[in-house]
Amino acid sequence: MSMSKLGRAALSGAAGLIVGVCAVAPAHAEGQFLVNARLRTELVDQAGLANDATAITLRTRLGYESGDLSGFTFLIEGEHVLHLVDDFNDTINGRPGYPVVADPEAAELNRVQLAFTGFEDTRLTLGRQRIILGDARYVGNVGFRQNEQTFDAFVASTTAIENLNLTYAYLDRAHRIFGDDHPAGELDLDAHAITAAVTAPLGTVTAFAILADVQDAAALSSATYGLNWSGSVAREGQATFGYKLEYAVQSDYGNAPASFDLNMFRAEASLSQNGLSGAIGIESLEGNGVRGFSTPLATLHGYQGWADVFLTTPANGIRDVYGRAGYAFPNPPLGSAMRAMVVYHDFETENGSLDLGSEFDAVLSSQLSEHVGLEFKAAFYDGGDSAIADRTKLWFAITYSR
């Protein structure tokens, strides 16, 4: 039996295990109900399209997480996305004259998982679950979109060895943001993700490997190996200096239809003091003229600008040089916490240094109460000398969670 079939058989038994554990577990174990709702307006003006997009959507998640049941906990959660105003292309509603807002209507089981914590400093989780490795550059939940990405998976993580954090994940299927009605709404996987993070006085060094054999989209299959070093230096009364360096190599793997060898490099330096922060950085993804360095299981919205122009790396790669400035209000005029941030990106191809445009992003968020938050966000992409269409995106969201 293949690893994929073994994984699917194990995952299909997760619900049965949950029922069995509940049957023998102490009745007094306390659990909690999970509620998350986000009402969001997204406006998009994109050059070359006849219509602007207006999307008003409501995302609701309802679930339940048990208390400790003899070392086991279980979680079940449903997710629903509703269109209140649908003047946009949601990728499945057949509106090609409108800009894409990738929030199709959906009603699905978002998470159903069983976890075991009976071993010291170790957690084992089986089932459909949210997985975010590191800063989600390679594997993430795409949390910005209304329908988040979850995985049918087995994950083992441990901190039993001092200063070492180990994680192994076997990924059997990705339930993507496009929902069950989209032809690419799911990815059939035979994938392994491994991270080993060592904490030292000079920062955290993380080695990682992402081995993804994508059964129904062979061109996405790849093996990625990398090393990340990040940390900060803080002295009393002085600014905190932060740093990040990463290098990764990627090659064909599994059922990939062609051979390739690509590199990725990123570096960032930051300063922060008294609520003010700033950073400069570069991320370079190599391309060979046919394909670029890709991370199809990642949370891509956080990289190469919030306008999501470069969700797929160009064939000649991309070099993103950016600067970021932020401010956390010490006495917020609204709510208990308020943050503002602006980001500027300059893009060009990694091969040939051809102009790919630039982007300015801004966000203002406020935590109104323990459970309610507000967010205003904007992205302005200018295609420059490239053939890529200019676009402006604006968001306003209110979120309730508990």
Automatic annotation (TrEMBL):
<dbReference type="InterPro" id="IPR023614">
    <property type="entry name" value="Porin_dom_sf"/>
</dbReference>
<keyword id="KW-0732">Signal</keyword>
<feature type="signal peptide">
    <location>
        <begin position="1"/>
        <end position="29"/>
    </location>
</feature>
<protein>
    <recommendedName>
        <fullName>Alginate export</fullName>
    </recommendedName>
</protein>
